[in-house]
Amino acid sequence: MARPYRPVAGRGYAVVEPIGQDIDDPVAAGASVRFRASLRRSPPIWHDK
């Protein structure tokens, strides 16, 4: 179970992307989704400032 935490300043980006579906697709309750997580120094190309 996820727990809340206070964010802290960092020097990079944590990117979590769904595998096998578009990032904007809705997910039904109870559905299983696989994700890829990566740590990066620069923002992903789709990042909005």
Explain the overall architecture.
Helix content is 0%, strand content 29%. It has 49 residues and is mainly beta. It has one domain (11-49). A two-stranded antiparallel sheet has the order 1-2. The radius of gyration is 13 Å and the shape is extended.
Structural class: mainly beta
Radius of gyration: 13 Å
Arithmetic mean of pLDDT: 87
* Helix content range: under 10%
Tally of individual domains = 1
What is this structure's SSE topology?
Blueprint: E1 13-19, E2 34-40
Antiparallel strand pairs: 1-2
Features:
mainly beta, extended, 49 residues, two-stranded antiparallel ribbon, single chain
Quick structural overview:
With 49 residues, the chain is mostly beta strands. The protein is built from no helices and two strands. It has one domain (11-49).
